[in-house]
Write a structure and sequence with these properties.
Helix content is about 35%, strand content about 20%. It is of the alpha/beta class. Strands 1, 2, 3, 6, 7, 8, 9, 10 and 11 form a 9-stranded mixed sheet that branches. Strands 4-5 form a two-stranded antiparallel ribbon. β4 and β5 form a beta hairpin. The longest helix has 16 residues. About 50% of the residues are buried.
Length: about 270
């Protein structure tokens, strides 16, 4: 194994911005969000969640929407041993799917182990690269970890940032890692900085595409993590899963500013 593979934990880049940086406040925030999520009261009857889609944020409306997705995992949490976590790279452009060299990811709640064996096995796919650079300042995966640490303790992760990749290439990597004890999580916000009416139209179209397991209509306008979403939909369609929307809303519903909003959606695949 190359020397650069033996590295310390990937340090938090989003603490204090996307979620509270103080340990006790963060733990309390996650628990309150999860307990308040309506999906937590229906998940046991709705089938086992094999994948979820959640926005990247614990603060404001994004946190409530993300909690709705994560709460659907709780009834069958004991069956999850690994989470394949996918999201966009906001700060780096690259071709393919990037896994880190880091052996763990840190948050104020502690360390989350990276499943390095799974990453090494996935390196047989040429579209998967191993590099820490896209992960260093990227919040999209990190913000999901407090939910994971609270609701799925002692679960390892396969953190993957999705760059320019064909749908089938992305789905191929996901499918190779998607074992019976694996939960797939896509971290993405929906439409960005449109007026509320336009955002609602775009987000409704995205929700319908997900529910139809149709990757084609999901583009950059629809979601920052459109590459990860398209790959998930392609893999889920092949597995004959069913996608269900839990919550779709936008930031303006809380702030009152309807001029430029960000869309948030929670979805479950079962």
């Amino acid at each position: 194994m190359p020397a650069e593979a033996m590295v310390d934990a990937r340090r938090p880049a989003a603490a204090g911005v996307f979620y509270p940086a103080e340990r006790e406040l963060l733990a309390r925030t996650v628990r309150e969000l999860a307990d308040a999520a309506p999906a937590s009261r229906t998940g046991a009857r709705a089938g086992r969640a094999r994948a979820i889609v959640a926005p990247h944020g614990l603060l404001g409306p994004a946190g409530h929407v993300a909690a709705a997705a994560w709460a659907r995992v709780v009834p069958h949490a004991a069956r999850v041993r690994r989470v394949v976590l996918l999201g966009p790279a906001h700060h780096t452009q690259f071709a393919g799917i990037a896994a880190p060299f880091a052996d763990s990811f840190a948050t104020p709640l502690g360390l989350v182990e990276v499943d390095r064996i799974a990453i090494e096995m996935a390196r047989r796919f040429p579209q998967l690269i191993v590099t820490d650079e896209p992960h260093e300042q990227e919040p999209s995966l990190e913000v999901q970890l407090p939910f994971l640490q609270t609701l799925l303790p002692n679960v390892a992760i396969v953190p993957l940032l999705v760059g320019e990749v064909e749908d089938l290439q992305g789905a191929e990597v996901i499918d190779s890692l998607w074992e019976d004890d694996t939960l797939v999580v896509v971290s993405t916000d929906l439409s960005h900085y449109y007026d509320a009416t336009t955002a609602q139209r775009l987000d409704e179209a995205t929700a319908r595409a997900l529910e139809s397991l149709d990757a084609v209509p999901i583009g950059e306008q629809q979601a920052c993590g459109h590459g990860a979403l398209r790959a998930l939909v392609t893999a889920a369609r092949a597995r004959k899963l069913t996608a269900t929307r839990l919550v779709v809303r936008h930031s303006g519903e809380a702030s009152g500013d309807l001029g430029e909003v960000v869309g948030f959606g929670a979805f479950v695949f079962a």
